[in-house]
Amino acid sequence: MILYHFWGQWFTFIICLALLFLTIEDLYQQQAHSNYLWPINLLLYIQKYNCVSFYLLIIISLLSWWLIAYRKALGSGDYPILILLLLDLSYIQFAWAILLATGLAFFFFFKIPHQPRIAFIPFLSFSWLIIKLFT
Description:
6 helices, about 0% strand, globular
């Protein structure tokens, strides 16, 4: 039990560092190389596997790829982070994180009128951090 708790803290720390680096990269370059999150996502999926999470993962994946490929509303770097949030948080926490991230992005989009596209990874990272700290 102690080893699992210790591993959980280190794993959360690794996720936090990865999100920090992706946030900085997305803020400055408007792109993020988030492919290195796939091993973390795989570990989280193996740790929390059940049928409901698999079906929800498929639904979120299809919706995300529709927003990336056809609507061009998300960048392809946002997809692994959405999957990370889905696998790391509970379903209610995931819904709150998405609500918080989109609400903050909506606020900043209208606060900074000269920028046609905003970086969404910082909002996802901030919402993950807030959910982890306060729940």
